[in-house]
Design brief:
This protein is mainly beta. The protein is built from no helices and 23 strands. The two termini are 35 Å apart.
Length: 259
Amino acid sequence: DDGETLSVGWSVPIEDPDPTIVHAGPRLLVWQDADRRQPIAMSVEAETGEVAWLNPSVASLFPASRSGEALPQNGQRSIPGSTEIWRWDEVLPGMVEDLLVMVRRNGDIVALESDDGTTVRWTIENVVDVVQHVEHGPLGVLVAGESRRGDGDRTVPEIVLVAADGQVVRRWPLDEAVDREIRWIRQTPLGEVIWGTTDGVSRRGLMPGDGEADDRWSLRPPQLRESWQAWARPGRLVVRERSDRLGTWRTRDGRRVSD
């Protein structure tokens, strides 16, 4: 402690009382979404506070033909397997490499150049029909949701991995009898995709060149059912279990290593 007091170096006016810092680096990528209808993306120089770019109309970058598809009159809908209510047109942002990748709850994805905030690198429509959870990370953007199967309204839970180049790397249809509610999803730099459901935790591995590895597991002990959250680190998964205890599990083989 050198006795110095903190002072404000710079300030930038924003319209959202609770903005999200999507990325922190030489530039800050700030997401404003006060009304969840017209989100604003903004890039700010971290050292000076100068606004590098501001895009107040990122919602217009999504496919117009699907912008109001299946949107109820009140603009909301429930997600299958959950008691939560989300806006159908809500956008979930995150960084994948040098891209701002935005996922809309109806399954559309737009990847935007973070250098200028206007150039669209790629777009995907309807990667799933209902998005429940999204995780941006070293493997790409991981999307968990529900997809229709055949005719009618029948849906099944599914997890989809989309790489930084916009290619769908893998789809994992889940067993709808036990995995109806996906509670969280995680990815690691080691090529691991891990998710928690009402029934337990599952892991799948990706190997360069041949897709999916054989080292997969699913765990169904009581403490992993209806787990609340998880944090991935190299070789380990820390799970907030149903009892609110934190347990550490080895990602390679699913063995519990500590409480």
